[in-house]
Amino acid sequence: MATVTVSKKACAVNPLKMSQPIGGALAFMGLRGAMPLLHGSQGCTSFGLVLLTRHFKEAIPMQTTAMGEVATVLGGYENVEQAVLNIYNRAKPEIIGICSTGVTETKGDDVEGYIKLMREKHAAVANLPIVYVSTPDFKDAFQDGWEKTVARIVETMVDAPKSAARRDPTKVNVLPGCHLTPGDLDELRTIIEDFGLEPTFLPDLAGSLDGHIPEDFTPTTIGGVGVEEISMMGQAGWTIAIGAQMRRAAEAMQQKTGVPFMLFERLCGLEANDALMAFLAEISGRPAPMKYRRQRGQLVDAMLDGHFHIGGCKLAVGAEPDLLNEVGGLLTEMGAQLLVAVTTTQSSVLERLPTEEVLIGDLEDLENLARAKDCDLMITHSHGRQAASRLKIPFFRMGIPMFDRLGGAHQLMVGYRGARELIFDISNLLMADHEENHEPTPDTWLEGVSSSHPTAAH
Amino acid sequence: MSALSATIQDVFNEPGCGKNANKSEAERKKGCTKQLQPGGAAGGCAFDGAKIALQPLTDVAHLVHGPIACEGNSWDNRGAKSSGSTLWRTGFTTDINETDVVFGGEKRLFKSIREIIEKYDPQAVFVYQTCVPAMIGDDIDAVCKAAREKFGKPVIPINSPGFVGPKNLGNKLAGEALLQHVIGTEEPEYTTPYDLNIIGEYNLSGELWQVKPLLDELGIRIMACISGDGKYKEVASSHRAKAAMMVCSKAMINIARKMEERYGIPFFEGSFYGIEDSSDSLREIARMLIERGAPAELMDRTEALIAREETKAWSAIAKYKPRFKGKKVLLITGGVKSWSVVAALQEAGLELVGTSVKKSTKEDKERIKELMGQDAHMIEDMTPREIYKMLKDARADIMLSGGRSQFIALKASMPWLDINQERHHAYMGYVGMVKLVEEIDKALYNPVWAQVRKPAPWEKSGDNWQTRAMAQAEAEAAGLAADPVKAEQVRRAKKICNCKSVELGVIEDAIVANNLTTVEGVREATNASGGCGACAVRIEGVLAELASASHAIAAE
Q1: How confident is the model at residue B376 (pLDDT cuts 50, 70, 90)?
Q2: Partner of B1 at 20 to 30 A CA spacing, among A94, B21, B172, B400?
Q3: A with B: how many residue pairs have Cβ under 8 Å apart?
Q4: In Å, how far are B57, B209, B394, B530 from B229, measured between CA atoms?
Q5: Of B51, B135, B252, whose CA–CA distance to A46 is shortest?
């Protein structure tokens, strides 16, 4: 049981957190032919665009209502209207997803009202799917923006089935949290399909931001789940939700369509994947394929090989709640101690984390706590690089943004295979650090028993 | 806010700005307040611009007063380099919450300044205003003043909330803040006749250090660089410099001009991109310093250094010339780099097939024309598909652009090189030019292109999406050639103004019907150029074409 505390500082230093609207915009990017639109000044979009471009190393579709000073004060109806019409004319999107920002929430723009009025005035967009989510920057974090947006998409775009009898038991809805990469989604798709089931991912970043070469250039997303596929999700036999953040969307789905859901708070690690396999075997009526029986053995072996390096490791992790839960969970199951856990926002998983205290704070907190507790591995997104280099401890990048390394979109964590890969990567990092920085010297034990850890010599 | 509006008006009325000088009186008053286009805008806000301009000051704590988006989504993402302090790369933000929005964020801001000073002891704190606190009326000037008095440290308000305009305006508002609160507030320890300010240089990828050794060798002291690898005290005492070089023409012209006005420091606009530009700039620096009292022998030493460096650079580049023979470059960039990079590439023997002038001023474009001759093919606001088609038509062998358009080239399996701020290589001065040529060579001749262009085993040869797209384009072209009526329709349907969606035919008709001769006239009649204004050049082209056509008819 962990206690959750909130940083008391007035000034955030080296932010861990990113804003809600771009979490929402990223969720819309998992839809085919989508154009996310931030209702705010153009910088709101520009910063998010640059951030996601640098992470995914892909062109990112995102537009702005370009609120100026006057519109900000008087209200942004005209800006929303013009933006939607411009996007409609130029980009021919299948759906426009609008997220509010701090600017427009401070004024209190009634965007739902704007959309209604706009549909009445302009026949062209009368039936264009437009989803609006309220995501003020001055509340919550990236993960919350994703959570609210997916729930909103479910509420507004999924059709309630006419009769429960028409439900197709081979169809499975998958609602992944924003902590899963396109690589994770591909892995999950394969696993689910291997049980003879047909998954629909909402959102499906594996279709849009996996780096594939598009057939044509379009200013909208180049893949992802289609509007029509979303509308038919109510006919699935089950919904699988991944990460506590997806409970809201899964409940919305159940409420609207009656599709029952199974929430997996984790899908990284042995037990988590055993649970997934058991569940898939049950709903499909098929035994787990041989491939996964072998992969389970490989993971067990990786855990045995890796525990020599990960065991006893003093861990400092800065991540959004669900990612923190996944990676903190996996490594503590292999003997690491989660001594420092810093996160961005409230979540039900935090108090169940295998640590004493979780701090909602920033990377300055992570750095200071890691120093105070003499941690020997830091895991956070790329912005942790300065802190890790000052602490001179190995640094493993996880989460968004990962702008200074390749492959962020394909970092694998889910499935037996994902956990195995992660264990190898982290063990190798620790082994390299040991070779470079902690080889014993004639003086290592000079101080006798009082000398704590080999780290002290450096 | 009234003080901010006055500053913005003042910034708009920039006599040193080429673009501004080309405007009518009424237009000038409107300044650069051209309305951004909802749903069609790209690029950063004024806050972004202010932060970009000042963040390279290394020993300053840059505190962003606003919700998490403004700093949390963007910190530590610039390629500037520091020779000392790393404080500038530390992200500070008040990360205001709902309570602050309701009750005001001034207290949190003041406490934040205190925390920063206690923990990090910076030379100064720069406080950046953003949209939300500006809307709720947080008076950052007053908070900064109180903090300055309380803590005895410079605490500088940077009033540039995002909604006042684009990035470019923010650059200038940052300049105003330096002029108002920093420059001239301290005295240098000593002065020399060789003291130079460099304005508008950000030391991206450490490129300033490609030039600094040359200045060091000549005994020229960079008194202050605004702002690359700059230090607070240097900027505060920069009013004692003898001359200034302005590097990025649009960003900080107000600083250069007002320092000339206030402190009599003459400036020139120069560039260290390209060999000839570097030599010209060094000469101009020497000339100005001599004019301000440096010994005349400085010019002899400068000429000797130029001769030596040019020889070295030319011989290094010479070996690439045969490899670049017949190779074509598509250059897509804006502002100062358009013309300076054009010169550099031509020196290496590359042929340019186009250069986008989206962000360039009219003067920049004139320079490009001059450099590239009358055949200069100006590409403005090309769509990704057009850029792709151009690359695919093999009219270009490599594309040079900013990071955002890289994926178009890479997805088309074409060589690409980053020449904007996110780039990893430094291209300034003589060594930088050689480096650029090396990088182009590396990109052009990398065997990976042959690999990635190979068809997948399941593709029938010639039946991939690329060839299908090209075939489609060719079929369309052939269809048009056979059908002059349709060809004319297509010609007239070309979008001239993207913001207001105005087609060529509409503009031509309006010009003929109303005898229009100016862009303003066309705007009144058709609404074209009523958005971002980037298409004004194209409208001028249409006007010129119709005028010459009607002359031809009159002559008959």
Answers
A1: very low
A2: B21
A3: 215
A4: 6, 10, 41, 40
A5: B51
- Report the distance separating Cα A147 and Cα A170, nearest Å: 26
pTM of the model: 0.90
List % helix, strand, coil for chain A (3-state, nearest 5).
50, 15, 35
| Residue A317 CB partners (closer than 8 Å, separation 6+) | A324, A327, A328, A338, A340, A341, A342, A378, A379, A380
| Separation in Å, CA of B112 to nearest CA in chain A | 5
Contacts 24+ apart (CB under 8 A), A446-455: A452/A374, A453/A374, A453/A376, A455/A374, A455/A376
Cβ contact, residue pair A106, B132, below 8 Å: yes
Helix (H, G, I), strand (E, B) or coil at A38: strand
d(CA A126, CA B149): 58
Beta bridge partners, A34, equal: A95
Task: Closest CB to A13: pick one of B46, B91, B108.
Answer: B91
**Sign of the CA dihedral B482, B488, B490, B491?**
positive
Residue A188: band (very low, low, confident or very high) from pLDDT cuts 50, 70, 90 = very high
User: Checking DSSP bridges between strand B195-201 and strand B502-503, what pairing results, if any?
Assistant: unpaired
Q: ipTM value, please give it.
A: 0.94
Helix (H) or strand (E) run with residue B432 in it: helix B429-444
Mutate to test the interface with B, among A39, A42, A385 (most CBs of B within 10 A): A42
Are A138 and B67 inside 8 Å of each other by CB? yes
DSSP string, A122-144: -GGGSSS-EEEE---TTSS-HHH
Element of type H or E holding A79: helix A77-91
**β-sheet bridge partners, residue B354:** B330
From B404, B382, B308, B398, select the one nearest B345 (Cα to Cα).
Answer: B398
pLDDT tens figures, B329-374: 877 665 445 566 676 677 778 887 765 554 455 566 566 655 554 3
pLDDT per position as a tens digit, B266-288: 999 888 888 888 999 999 999 99
DSSP state string for B36-72: P-TTT--S-BHHHHHHHHHTT-TTEEEEEES-HHHHH
Backbone Cα Rg of chain A:
23
What are the angstrom distances between the C-alpha of B194 and each of B240, B283, B303?
11, 13, 16
